[in-house]
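User: Just a sanity check before I run the rest of the batch. Below are the structure tokens for the first item. I only need the designed sequence back.
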């Protein structure tokens, strides 16, 4: 009952306030573009992948996350063994991924990571091959820690492959 009363009061207040506000026409395209700020780089080591072919949803691939390191302005540490990257591919060259794992900062703080993304192989309008791989990691850090800022922002990442590192390197940016 209290929740319902509170919600009705809030909606009434918003409607009353809205009736006195002036709404300006929006420009298209918008004048403001969100900025990105580099947050960290993860160097993730991987175990042997395995797949389950032809499920009702497509081909399921599981790639164990065995460790690694991360570093960015104000944070550094290791990736904890035991997570995995769960991928679901269809027959049209599109893969959805969800990597779930934990990291530990050099000062002993554990942070949970859930990274969802898309890998798409296809062709552009001119018929040339194209490759798209982006993801959006979400962090769960202790709210009262110096890493609490990770809880209160959206992030995007893309991979980088190098000959020197046998795994996947993910560069992560915070959307400002």
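Assistant: Here's the designed sequence for the first item:
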């Amino acid at each position: 009952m209290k929740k319902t009363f509170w919600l009705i009061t809030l909606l009434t207040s918003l409607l009353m306030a809205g009736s006195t506000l002036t709404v300006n026409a929006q420009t298209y395209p918008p004048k403001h573009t969100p900025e990105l700020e580099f947050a960290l780089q993860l160097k993730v080591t991987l175990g042997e992948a395995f797949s389950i072919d032809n499920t009702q949803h497509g081909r399921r691939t599981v790639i164990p996350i065995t460790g690694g390191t991360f570093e960015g302005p104000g944070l550094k540490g290791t990736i904890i063994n035991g997570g995995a990257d769960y991928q679901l591919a269809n027959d049209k060259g599109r893969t959805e991924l969800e990597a779930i794992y934990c990291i530990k900062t050099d000062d002993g703080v554990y942070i949970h990571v859930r990274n969802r993304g898309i890998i798409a192989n296809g062709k552009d309008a001119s018929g040339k091959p194209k490759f798209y791989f982006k993801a959006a990691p979400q962090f769960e850090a202790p709210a009262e820690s110096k890493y609490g800022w990770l809880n209160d922002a959206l992030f995007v990442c893309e991979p980088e492959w190098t000959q020197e590192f046998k795994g996947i390197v993910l560069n992560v940016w915070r959307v400002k």
